[in-house]
Write a structure and sequence with these properties.
Helices cover 14% and strands 35% of the residues. With 380 residues, it is mainly beta.
Length: 380
């Protein structure tokens, strides 16, 4: 056998695979805390959604995840738990891989905390994870009585024939916003889309506790006539008010509006749904303005930012840097952006980006109780 010279030996050493040895990582999105919202405040029942959990193998050896256990803690005591194993884990893994393959994760990065949850050098895999593969557990829903302080995710696995255990913990922040805010509209309004699990809002990070507000006439409809024109809608043109004192950190105006974005008379729900999905995909590709339309975002201090979306083109009365006061008129309610009819979308969240933020439940100063989907709110 021919001997290797010193340079050849050095070359072989440099080119040999360098295996990383690291414990499994457990990441959350949102990453700093999770918030519940009352399902029934009188009975002290809370509803909580864990949007995303990523279990990542950063080790050079394959990791077989055999179980994922989600535990709710009051102090140091586990009071509730859910175990995912076997076929349930296989199904979860398959769902994640489909999301990745369809481009959904890339198309709506705000739902997955950008690249903080699944990094650029990582892919989604089966419960047997190769190096830099992740198992994505999404949208785990819980209901419970009383208070919980934190949620702990524990994994059990096998690596090179040995048992592997790892865990990650996320604080649960119960209750509402630090400040009490004015409802941003005057008069009687219907909560068409709110915080309930039966609405679209609850399933999306930034708008988890957002509201879509419309007005309903005596006939139970949101419009008069055939609803072809924006001006047919009772809500259209209403004053949109600042919920609290603060500083304007973002505005967007000049977004084009088109009445044809609404469901047309005689158009079936299926036909409209297909047209709407195509339209929404195009808006998503255009970014924040395409989705929120004409909007205002205000910094109220303490990590609380309010967003007012889908406003009328050219109606904004404030600009970036302006100081505003509670109740000040910001502009007019419209139907710009990703809007199916004139309404106000408003939310409170933890960062000054309308999409790359996590929702905060809103405490109102002039409306009683926890506002729910389907409620009629009367604000003075």
């Amino acid at each position: 056998m021919k001997k290797l010279g010193p340079l050849a030996a050095l070359s072989v050493a440099i080119l040999a695979p360098q295996f990383v040895h690291a414990a499994p990582e457990i990441r959350f999105c949102p990453s700093t805390q999770v918030r519940p919202y009352p399902l029934n405040a009188q009975r002290d029942i809370e509803g909580l959604l864990l949007h995303n959990i990523a279990i990542v193998n950063r080790d050079g050896e394959p990791l077989r995840v055999t179980a994922v256990t989600i535990e709710f803690l009051a102090g140091d005591s586990v009071v509730d738990s859910r175990r995912l194993a076997g076929a349930a884990l296989d199904k979860i893994a398959e769902r994640g891989k489909k999301l990745e393959a369809s481009g959904t994760i890339a198309a709506i990065p705000f739902q997955f905390c950008g690249r903080n949850l699944i990094r650029a050098d990582e892919t989604l895999g089966t419960p047997t994870l190769a190096h830099n593969q992740a198992l994505l557990v999404t949208q785990q829903v819980f209901g419970y009585n009383g208070a919980r302080d934190s949620v702990r995710v524990r994994i059990d696995g096998k690596q090179k024939g040995k048992a592997v255990v790892a865990s990650g913990t996320l604080p649960i922040v119960s209750g509402f916003s630090k400040k009490a805010y004015l409802f941003p509209l005057r008069g009687a309004w219907y909560v068409g889309n709110g915080t309930g699990f039966n609405t679209d809002h609850r399933w999306t990070n930034p708008e988890e506790f957002a509201f879509d507000m419309v007005q309903i006439g005596a006939d139970g409809l949101t419009h008069s006539g055939d609803g072809r024109r924006f001006t047919d809608y009772h809500a259209y043109g209403a004053d949109v008010l600042a919920m609290g004192d603060g500083k304007v950190v973002q505005t967007h105006d000049g977004e084009a509006v088109d009445p044809k974005a609404m469901q047309q008379p005689g158009e079936s729900d299926d036909a409209y749904g297909a047209r709407l999905r195509k339209d929404q995909a195009a808006r998503l590709a255009r970014g924040t303005g395409g989705i929120a339309g004409n909007f205002v975002m205000i910094d109220h201090g303490g990590g609380e930012f309010s967003l007012y979306a889908h406003m009328q083109k050219g109606s904004l009365r404030v600009k970036k840097g302006d100081a505003v006061h509670a109740g000040e008129v910001l502009g007019k309610l419209g139907s710009s952006g990703n809007s199916t009819e004139p309404h106000l979308h408003f939310q409170l969240c933890d960062h000054p980006d309308p999409l790359m933020c996590a929702g905060i439940p809103i405490q109102f100063s002039n409306v009683q109780g926890a506002v729910q989907s389907g409620d009629v709110v009367i604000a003075k």
